[in-house]
Amino acid sequence: MDTRRRPVSPARWLQYAAILIATMAAGTAVTACEDGDSGSPQSTRTVITTPPPVTVTANDSSASNQSESPNATSQTRYLSELEPLTSTIGVDTSSAEINGRGFARSVTLIAGSAGPANSAEYNLGRHWNLFSATVGLRDDSPTGGSLTFEVSVDGARKYSRQIPLGQSLNVNLDVSNALRLKLTVTYSGQDSGAVYYGSWGNARLQSSSTLPPSNSDMSSE
């Protein structure tokens, strides 16, 4: 019996090519049969096809971990980036360390016996939903001092806490549809000539439909 392999006919090669094309996208294993005459034994060989890699871009809505859209940053605005409409004796927008933690974007108001109350008012334009900050005396304030921190929205007082040096509070206030936001620090001590720094760490406005829970507990961390 003649066991030599006979060449595969052109028609058979076309059949193999059709199978490969149909299965390439699925990445399946393709088994191709080679035979000579219809009566000769078949031999097989397996061809593994691998689909080309898929690159997911930022615009692909099917990506599960997309990066934020280019306008995502427009939903947050730090008060240090805004000019106050009014201020008693000015605003310090440099970084501040409050209760041992650093805050790069802060608003600081000075108060003391010479000027017990200091405030700054900002225009919200009815564009924001939430005001957030970590408040407390800046760590370079004199030992033993305390200040009262107040937030008013459109003339109505929404927040008031007295905070001593070495403690801090997280403030989250709903300012939906508000036009004006006013921050005030007040000193009520008796130290003549002492100057205290009331800082609003990373004070920011956010436009979000979901408001985080308000936290008014003092922190000594």
Outline the structure in words.
The protein is mainly beta and 221 residues long. The protein is built from 1 helix and 14 strands; from the N terminus they run H-E-E-E-E-E-E-E-E-E-E-E-E-E-E. The chain has one helix at residues 10-24; strands spanning 29-34, 43-48, 76-78, 86-87, 96-98, 101-103, 106-112, 117-123, 130-137, 146-153, 156-164, 169-174, 180-186, 195-206. Strands 3, 7, 9, 12 and 14 form a 5-stranded antiparallel β-sheet that branches. A hairpin with a 2-residue loop joins strand 10 (146-153) and strand 11 (156-164). It starts with 9 loop residues before the first helix and ends in a 15-residue tail after the last strand.
The rough form would be described as globular
Q: Which stretches of 5+ consecutive residues score pLDDT under 50?
A: 1-8, 19-73, 214-221
Average residue pLDDT: 74
What percentage of residues falls in helices of 4 or more residues? Answer: under 10%
Structural class: mainly beta
For the record, give the distance between the C-alpha atoms at the N and C termini, rounded to a whole number.
92 Å
How many strands, which pairing sense, and closed or not: the largest β-sheet? Answer: 5 strands, antiparallel
Number of helices: 1
Strand residues, percent: 35-45%
Radius of gyration, rounded? 35 Å
Descriptive labels:
221 residues, disordered C terminus, 14 strands, mainly beta, disordered N terminus, 5-stranded antiparallel β-sheet, 1 helix
